[in-house]
Design a protein that fits this description.
Helices cover 35% and strands 14% of the residues. By secondary structure, the chain is an alpha+beta fold. The strands form two sheets. Strands 4, 5, 6, 7, 8 and 10 form a six-stranded mixed beta sheet that branches. The protein has a four-stranded antiparallel beta sheet with strand order 2-1-3-9.
């Protein structure tokens, strides 16, 4: 009999300790929903504690698919996903944890000066600081810093080092502040009515702007979350009030962001945060 392969073996160990797990494919992202669950047609999986309307046995609904049930983890439906998986993901909120994801050296330096020491796990570009307790997840709370807890997933990169501390108020406060990494550049904001012809720019100008925005996202080599947010903010600051943006324009931006590893939920959150910042 062949031994249980990584990452399924790692997932089983985490699940046994009460950490809900899920397989992550190339790009460190969850597997897409199956045909029956596409666009949440099944009703989705609302949380991790009570059964939702979805009866799909597959790896659907991203973070909501995370489970501690070993029979699910080794089921045939999940086995195919584990064979294609590149790593193990987990739902921090389901394990009563919060991950402060630090993307670069500057973010790590800020954390060391600002936050209490806790368990840390090295990542490809930075570190995960893990605290005991849950909160609302939010991306780009400051340059190079994301918060992953409820309704989010994180990549499992090992047990880490250090003693885990309780979630501090300094981290909770980040989720209720406006993202500090961006201050909108003053621009002339059009006053036309939604749905009407853009009164300040030609269609060609808008097309060039969307293309440039796509290129900005596609060209990001680091701090992808921050780049996506800044780009959304720039587009909305010019065209958010005049009604010239179409669903196709927004879809192009979301597609570019997801090609860089962002999830659809992250894109929607960044778009909503940008609209809120501009008062739209």
């Amino acid at each position: 009999m062949n031994p249980t392969p990584y990452p399924q073996r790692t997932a089983l160990g985490l699940a046994a300790s009460g950490v809900p797990v899920l397989p992550l494919r190339r790009g460190k992202v969850p597997f897409g929903n199956c045909t029956a669950c596409a666009d949440n047609a099944c009703g989705g999986r609302p949380n991790m504690k009570t059964p939702g309307p979805c009866r799909c046995a597959g790896v659907c609904h991203a973070w909501a698919a995370a489970t501690t049930d070993p029979s699910v983890i080794v089921s045939p439906a999940w086995a195919a996903a584990w064979r294609r998986a590149e790593c193990v993901g987990y739902h921090p909120g389901g394990a009563r944890l919060t991950v402060v994801d630090l993307d670069d050296a500057d973010a790590i330096a800020w954390a060391r000066e600002t936050l209490p020491a806790t368990r840390t796990v090295p990542t490809t570009r930075g570190e995960h600081w893990i605290y005991r307790g849950t909160m609302t997840s939010r991306n780009a709370v400051r340059p190079g810093v994301d918060i992953k807890s409820t309704m989010a997933y994180a990549r499992y990169l090992g047990p880490g080092t250090g003693t885990m501390a309780d979630l501090p108020d300094a981290v909770r406060a980040l989720a209720v502040k406006e993202p500090s990494l961006v201050r909108p550049v003053p621009v002339a904001v059009p006053t036309g009515t939604a749905g009407g012809e853009c009164p300040h720019r030609t269609p060609a100008y808008l097309a060039r702007g969307i293309a440039m925005a796509e290129q900005r996202i596609t060209g990001a080599s680091s701090a992808v979350h921050a780049t996506v947010y800044r780009t959304f903010l720039a587009v909305l600051s010019r065209h958010g009030r005049c009604g010239c943006l179409t669903d196709a324009d927004v879809s192009r931006l979301f597609t570019a962001a997801q090609a860089k590893g962002e999830t659809a939920r992250h894109c929607a959150d960044a778009w909503t945060n940008a609209r809120t910042t501009l008062g739209l």
